[in-house]
UniProtKB/TrEMBL annotation:
<protein>
    <submittedName>
        <fullName>EAL domain-containing protein</fullName>
    </submittedName>
</protein>
<feature type="domain" description="EAL">
    <location>
        <begin position="24"/>
        <end position="274"/>
    </location>
</feature>
Length: 279
């Protein structure tokens, strides 16, 4: 009996392993094709001022709709793109497309893009970004790049050099998913950041967990002491927005204000939510 169960487990494991290898290979090939066919595009999610509810910027988030498979999320294809060396090409493509859209926005609206760890290992990254902005006629002062703490681990020297160059060009640097990476505090002193983005897992559990509230308070305190801005990610209801605002958080992002979308509806989010003032 036990033997049977054991065998079944082994074969199940082998099957799922095989599936995942097949799946990864399928993804790799499909991703190459998607890049050739230019099928991956940025969608935009508003970032709002929590006191006025006005949209102050949009984060570009990569979206891929496969002809047969339908929507494939970035959490599935970005890691694959990293593995097969396609993430830099993909990142440049997203930046170019996003800047082409964002240059038509009102000039106070910022554009945020995500940079992957592999991109930050490229010593030419800052030059590439600045060149793309030049071609798109998009001012560097309106661009924010979001990096994760994990992007600083592999090659801190190269990453730091890139961030210094980007800042010198007027680009804003945000530390994304803050509180979930490795050796958080060290990174805060190793590089200069303009903004911390509190990871959505702390926001999701905000009302249910005293620990999450303590962590959020600590991050807000840190950002105040460092004199840098702070954005809360993943705000889904008004209650969370109110708690965050009362605790001193001034910027927010989440489904409450708008989902990522191909049309940038900053006017809608401003007028509809603008009336719901926070206490
Ligand atoms: P991220 O940069 O932390 O982006 C925020 C993620 O949270 C997005 O997921 C967004 O759709 C989702 N989100 C925003 N508000 C809410 C909310 O209220 N509730 C919930 N449940 N989710 C919310 P998405 O678009 O699936 O992207 C996942 C991750 O993939 C991003 O996390 C980012 O790390 C990466 N990514 C996306 N686009 C790009 C890209 O162009 N380049 C790179 N390198 N990474 C990207
Ligand atoms: Mg991000
Ligand atoms: Mg994030
Ligand atoms: Mg995240």
């Amino acid at each position: 009996k036990a033997k049977n169960g054991g065998r079944r487990q082994v074969s199940f494991f082998e099957t799922s392993l095989e599936n995942s290898v097949v799946e990864q290979n399928w993804l790799k090939n499909a991703l190459r094709e998607a890049l050739d066919k230019d099928e991956i595009v940025p969608h935009f999610q508003p970032i709002v001022d929590l006191s006025t509810r006005e949209t102050i910027g949009f984060e570009a988030l990569a979206r891929w709709t496969h002809a047969e498979r339908g929507a494939i999320g970035p959490s599935d294809f970005i890691p694959v793109a990293e593995q097969c060396g396609l993430v830099s090409a993909l990142g440049e493509r997203i930046l170019r497309k996003a800047a082409a859209v964002a240059r038509h926005w009102p000039s106070h609206i910022m554009l945020s893009v995500n940079l992957s760890p592999a991109q930050l290992r490229d010593p030419q990254l800052a030059l590439k970004i600045i060149a793309i902005l030049g071609e798109a006629e998009f001012p560097p002062s309106r661009l924010e790049v979001e990096i994760t703490e994990n992007a600083l681990i592999a090659d801190l020297e190269t990453a730091r050099d890139t961030l210094v160059k980007l800042r010198a060009a007027g680009i804003t640097i945000a530390l994304d998913d803050f509180g979930t990476g490795h050796s958080t505090m060290q990174h805060l002193t190793a590089c200069r950041f303009d903004k911390l983005k509190i990871d959505q897992r702390f926001i999701r559990t905000l009302t249910a967990s005293d620990e999450s509230q303590a962590i959020v308070d600590a991050i807000l305190g840190l950002s105040e002491r460092f004199g840098i801005r702070c954005t809360a990610e993943g705000i889904e209801d008004l209650g969370d927005a109110e708690i965050l605002f009362r605790r001193g958080c001034r910027e927010g992002q989440g489904y409450l204000f708008g989902k990522p979308s191909q049309n940038t509806e900053f006017c809608k989010s401003t007028t509809e939510l603008g009336r719901m003032r926070l206490a």
